[in-house]
Design a protein that fits this description.
The protein contains 23 helices and 21 strands. By secondary structure, the protein is an alpha/beta fold. Helix 7 packs across helix 8. The longest helix has 23 residues.
Length: 639
């Protein structure tokens, strides 16, 4: 099977006749699918580089790193002896420690070498300078020498003596860990080529900025993450290592390849190899490739979304949710629909590929105090058995652009970058969770951009370079958008109010959300990714307010029993007066009812009980409620 060479290798082959040095950055620790002895194989960078150079007549590859010094690749007797003779090295134990000054001399020798083609790889080159903007004297001399050498080196053709020693290489199986012998390929490149120096760095900024500035002889090669076709080809190579591959029919194999390729979007080929190793250790066959990928991402093989008991809990979930979130039938039904879709694995089923999007996305919008946050908590308890299992972020804390570093961690080089971000750390700790972003409109618009990647790809990389996967989470956004809007004069006016039909409330709030993302933020793409998952909550109706009031009063009675061992009783007159006070204004929802209950009942009750003798008493009866000079007092008896 013929394969296409990685892009960076194609660029290297194209530029070898005209570039003397290369800065290679990006995914330099990945594996690469290349042709080895006529068959495709997944190999690390040095092996891929050697196979490329060997086919162009290169006889050896020198590798330097700051920890071990200089060594030769491949580490064979003939190659080692050639390197020792040409470059005056002593590689008796495989490596030799050398200084930067000696390394500069070695680079000069290599680039002018006429007897044999050779290349030098500076591995971990990011660690050569301690600080790129404050080089020591020795480091500065070294980089100046390297810069000068890049401009003075000439493309060379090895002399006739070296050419006469060329031999046909010995074939090596594609899966062999040992590189092919260091003899030139049969079809050696006849034209002049540089003996190149290749700098392997994490980022191009890890070298002094002036080193490659405006240099026509230093090329930058950036190695990106593998694309779909590359991952598919790698999956075909790895497929025979899965249990049951030999017995599977063609349809099952193609289904496996599709799931493996799509599920590893954004991953390296090294990650695909690790997933294969993980599947082998866990004895997972082709049909369980999704479990293997998820286990690699989130560290858990068990998938709670597939549990039968969860489906039963969701089936019975409407009564459970409405018991705590009252009067929001439309919101509860829409939420359960999205939850059922998540449990069935049909999220994003309309797309060609399944991707790694979150299990569910919900945008709770509506008046304050109507149960948006409460529904998020109740949903968490329904799915995970504990309402505290949700991860909550109050987005009013992220009103400034710089606060985005709290979510993802500071960028590399800044103080605290190694601590990671609050969001990414939390999701790594709890991959199966509900993540709540409260009052999303209060966050800085730049921070909202981070949600684009989460909603589309289901992953986010923090300042440490570690990736958190959101593919097993439910994301919930809450917002008060649309309740108040600006009129023509710029004044804030109430757009919807208690008593308006739900259809009016829903239409105006949806319109306000659309205007906010499209025109105020100029980010319609965020709204587009949220899609039709907007759940609009209605105002608290009077009959629902009565139920909320009664529930809160029961909570007060329960607390009184727990703390003071006393039962609470109210006369019908007191209950009616208290109900009228608490439900007079429903514009603040259930939270407003609770605030009124606290000021009109709990505070005066505490005042009355504070001075009462409760020893041996087990019942408190509130017989009178009156207000004098704006001070509410209760008449109580204890028995």
């Amino acid at each position: 099977m013929s394969i296409e060479k990685p892009r960076w290798i194609q660029d290297l082959e194209r530029l070898l006749p005209i570039r003397s040095q290369f800065i290679v950055s990006g995914s330099i620790r990945d594996n690469y699918l290349v042709d080895v002895a006529g068959a495709p194989a997944l190999v690390p960078l040095l092996r891929a580089l050697w196979e490329t150079l060997r086919n162009s007549g290169y006889r050896c590859l020198l590798v330097f790193d700051p920890a071990d010094g200089i060594r030769v690749y491949p580490n064979e007797t003939a190659t080692r002896e050639l390197a020792e003779r040409l470059f005056d090295l002593r590689l008796g134990e495989g490596t030799q420690k050398i200084s930067l000054e000696t390394l500069a001399a070695l680079m000069k020798n290599l680039t002018g070498q006429r007897e044999a083609r050779a290349a030098l790889v500076l591995d971990f080159a990011s660690r050569i300078p301690r600080q790129t903007d404050h080089l020591s004297e020795g480091e500065h001399r070294f980089f100046v020498a390297a810069e000068k050498l890049s401009l003075t080196a000439a493309a060379l053709v090895p002399n006739a003596t070296a050419k006469s020693e060329a031999k046909t290489p010995v074939p090596v199986p594609a899966n062999s860990p040992t590189p092919a012998p260091a003899t030139p390929a049969a079809k050696e490149f006849a034209g002049p080529l540089f003996n190149p120096v290749l700098w392997l760095v994490n980022r191009s900024q890890d070298l002094p900025s002036w080193f490659a500035l405006d240099s026509e002889r230093v090329a930058s090669l950036s190695i990106g993450r593998p694309e779909y076709e590359t991952r598919e080809a790698a999956a075909r190579q790895l497929a025979p290592l899965f249990v049951g591959f030999g017995e599977a029919d063609e349809k099952a194999r193609e289904r496996f390849l599709k799931s493996f390729t799509e599920g590893t979007e954004g991953m390296s080929l090294a990650a695909l190899s690790d997933i294969t190793e993980l599947a082998s250790r866990k004895h997972l066959d082709l049909a369980h490739i999704d479990d293997a990928v998820r286990c690699y991402k989130v560290g858990a093989l068990d998938n709670p979304w597939r549990k039968d008991h969860l489906r039963q809990k969701i089936a019975d979930g409407q009564g459970f949710l409405e018991e705590r979130v009252k009067g929001q039938r439309a919101a509860v039904v829409k939420t359960l629909d999205i939850l059922k879709r998540s449990a069935m694995g049909l999220t994003g089923a309309q797309a060609r590929s399944r991707g790694n999007r979150p299990r569910g996305v919900l945008f709770f919008a509506g008046p304050t105090g109507v149960g948006k946050t409460e529904l998020a908590k109740t949903l968490t308890q329904l799915v995970f058995g504990d309402e505290r299992a949700y991860i909550r972020f109050d987005m009013s804390e992220f009103a400034e652009e710089h606060t985005g570093a709290r979510l993802l961690g500071a960028p590399p080089g800044y103080i605290g970058f190694d601590a990671g971000g609050e969001l990414t750390n939390s999701v790594r700790e709890k991959p199966f969770s509900v993540v709540l972003f409260d009052e999303i409109e209060k966050a800085h618009p730049r921070i909202l951009d981070k949600f684009l990647q989460i909603l589309e790809d289901g992953r986010l990389t923090d300042g440490r370079g570690e990736t958190a996967y959101f593919s097993e989470t439910i994301l919930i956004f809450t917002s008060n958008l649309g309740i108040f809007v600006e009129d023509a004069s710029g004044q804030r006016v109430q757009s919807v109010k208690p008593g308006d039909p739900y259809e009016v409330v829903e239409a105006r709030i949806r319109e306000a959300i659309g205007d906010y993302f499209k025109y105020r933020l100029s980010r319609p793409e965020i709204l587009n990714r949220i899609g039709d998952n907007i759940v609009v909550f209605d105002f608290i109706a009077p009959e629902v307010a009565v139920m909320i009031f009664e529930g809160m009063l029961k909570n007060v009675a329960r607390r009184l029993q727990e703390e003071l061992r006393c039962q609470l009783a109210l006369t019908p007159e007191v209950r009616a007066a208290l109900l009228e006070r608490c439900t007079r204004d429903l514009s603040h929802g259930g939270r407003g009812i609770g605030n009124q209950l606290e000021s009109a009942f709990i505070n005066p009750l505490s005042r009355a009980l504070f001075g009462a003798d409760l020893a041996g008493r087990n019942k408190v009866t509130v017989e009178r409620l009156e207000e004098v000079d704006r001070v509410i007092t209760l008449g109580i008896t204890v028995a």
